[in-house]
Design a protein that fits this description.
Layout (H helix, E strand, L loop, with lengths): L1 H16 L6 H17 L11 H12 L11 E7 L2 E7 L17 E5 L3 H5 L3 H4 L3 E2 L5 E2 L2 H7 L1 H8 L4 E5 H7 L3 E2 L15 E3 L2 E3 L5 H15 L5 H13 L4 H14 L8
Parallel strand pairs: 7-9
Antiparallel strand pairs: 1-2, 3-6, 4-5, 8-9
Helix pairs in contact: 1-2, 3-7, 3-11, 9-10
The structure holds calcium ion (2 copies).
């Protein structure tokens, strides 16, 4: 069994690397076959598949006694606003001041640590307009993948990859890589988060959490990590080892999804 899995992973790696060089149709077919073997296998994939919107709701159960935002450590809580449940940030709890977008700074959004772009862009639905809307117009990208690609939906809904982030920071981080930025500008009040030159620098005590999420997404779905990123993440993994909360969080997610993050021990 292990050999088969290794072979599949090797194939995924090979086809991801050389996608441009080989016949595109063969590539699509092979990748489809590979992905469906993985998804049908019991290999560390989430056993209980849900949608991204379901996962966001389930995260409430995971975080019920530890409602702090990921990047800024702000307390947040669920409140009814005009009959709708909103996840409201307590800005006074952490000294966060919005950089620009005060409206989005009020609420928590569920951030993909490994951005959707990073795990979506190898999918056919992301690159080719294979979807059609109600007016007959073809489209591609995230919306198309959500519609037609179960593998993408599984990755997008994976709770290990979701963290509660203030909306403005989720927006500013965009799909940028994490890294180190010279200096310590503070554009968000007391919140230790920097974005510059398409890099986002997180505070020190979440760097290991980020590294282990990338390793998990690579291990589970074959999402690629560049050599430069890997070196950085290996350092972050050591500098910020698994905390008690990270372990509790992973145990709760495992109970819901049915699979482990083997990098959290
Ligand atoms: Ca810095
Ligand atoms: Ca940590």
């Amino acid at each position: 069994m292990k050999n088969l899995i290794f072979f599949i992973m090797l194939c995924t790696f090979y086809f991801n690397c050389y996608a441009q060089d080989i016949n595109d149709l063969n590539f699509q077919t092979m990748q489809y076959v590979i992905n469906n073997i993985i998804i049908d296998d019991d290999y560390n994939m989430p056993h209980h598949n849900q949608s991204f919107s379901q996962s966001k709701k389930l995260m409430k159960k995971v975080y019920y006694d530890n409602q702090y935002s990921f990047y800024c450590g702000c307390k947040y809580d669920y409140k009814q606003i005009y009959g709708k449940e909103k996840t409201v940030v307590d800005v006074a709890s952490c000294g966060y001041i919005p950089r620009k977008n005060a409206e989005r700074g009020k609420y928590i959004e569920w951030e993909h640590v490994v951005p959707a772009h990073a795990f979506g862009n190898t999918r056919q639905c992301w690159r080719e307009a294979i979807c059609t809307d109600s007016k007959g117009k073809s489209f591609k990208g995230r919306k198309c993948c959500e519609k037609v690609d179960p593998v993408f939906r599984t990755m997008q809904a994976d709770m290990y990859n979701l963290q509660p982030a203030i909306g403005e920071l989720n927006a500013d981080r965009s799909n940028y890589h994490y890294g180190i930025i010279d200096g310590e500008p503070r554009e968000y009040g007391m919140c230790d988060f920097e974005v510059a030159g398409k890099i986002a620098e997180p505070k020190e005590d979440i760097r290991g959490d980020i590294a282990r999420t990338y390793f998990y997404m690579e291990h589970t779905y074959g999402v690629r990590i560049s050599d430069k990123q890997r070196k950085l993440f290996e350092i972050w993994d050591k500098q910020d080892p698994v905390s008690e909360w990270e372990r509790v969080r992973a145990n709760r997610i495992e109970k819901i999804q049915g699979n482990k993050n083997p990098f959290i021990k």
